[in-house]
Amino acid sequence: MRVFKMKNLLKTIIRLIALLFIFPVYGIMLIGEVLLKNDLSFQGCSQFLSLFPGVPGNYLRQQFYCLSLKECHNDCCIEFGTRLNQRDIELGRRVYIGTNCCIGLCRIEDDVMLGSNVDIISGKKQHNFDSLDTPMREQGGELETIVIGEDSWLGNSSVVMANIGKKSIVAAGSVVIKDVEPYSIVGGNPAKMLKNRLD
């Protein structure tokens, strides 16, 4: 019990130190938001902080996202090389995001684990391409909030552009283009149901 209390106290001290270091970065982001009126300054800070390795980097990212995201908790872990692209992202409790992930607009619920190199794309309508006379980059698009249900696991290098039901598993390398029912194990490109965890 005493060791547990000491460990928690040490974590609290490290978080406070990380918070002190992160305040200038957060201030720069806020100034950039006022000047640019979009998420570019947030994205720049996210890219900058993704470059800090090890445990210190994890704590710096944790504190920055606790300040800047719509929802984020002190018990999340966001590893080296991972970038978050929207301030409206929501991270639940005990979320783990592995190295080199790219996270679009989403709500990641409690106890979700993401392997390395996972991409969560902000839905299937992010880029319009109907007109052949207009470059695709100029056709705009629509961001959709993707929901990753509680206690789910997204395997390495999976690409997700649809909702994942709670307690589901997405196999490594899968591409999810349709909503996944709770308790599912899916895999492949495009991802298909492999098993229901309740069976």
Domain count: the total is 2
Backbone shape: flat
Please name the fourth-level CATH homologous superfamily of the largest domain: Hexapeptide repeat proteins
Overall CATH class of the largest domain = Mainly Beta
Radius of gyration (Å) = 18 Å
The spatial strand order of the largest sheet comes to 1-4-7-10-12-14-15
The secondary structure category is alpha/beta
Query: Helicity, in percent?
Result: 25-40%
CATH topology category name of the largest domain = UDP N-Acetylglucosamine Acyltransferase, domain 1
Order of helical and strand elements: HHHEEEEEEEEEEEEEEE
Mean pLDDT: 94
The count of helical stretches stands at 3
Beta strands, count: 15
Query: How far from one another are the termini?
Result: 39 Å
Annotated CATH architecture of the largest domain = 3 Solenoid
In short:
30% of the residues lie in helices and 19% in strands.
Name the descriptors:
UDP N-Acetylglucosamine Acyltransferase, domain 1; 199 residues; 15 strands; 5-stranded parallel β-sheet; alpha/beta
Report on this model:
The protein has 199 residues and is α/β, with parallel strands linked by helices. The protein has two domains: 1-68, no CATH class; 75-199, 3 Solenoid (UDP N-Acetylglucosamine Acyltransferase, domain 1). It is built from three helices and 15 strands. It has helices spanning 2-36, 40-49, 54-68; strands spanning 77-78, 83-84, 90-91, 96-97, 102-103, 106-108, 113-114, 119-120, 146-148, 153-154, 159-160, 169-170, 175-176, 184-187, 192-196. The strands form three sheets. The protein has a seven-stranded mixed beta sheet with strand order 1-4-7-10-12-14-15. β14 and β15 (192-196) form a beta hairpin. α1 (2-36) packs antiparallel against α2 (40-49) and α1 crosses α3 (54-68). It starts with a helix and ends with a strand. The mean pLDDT is 94.
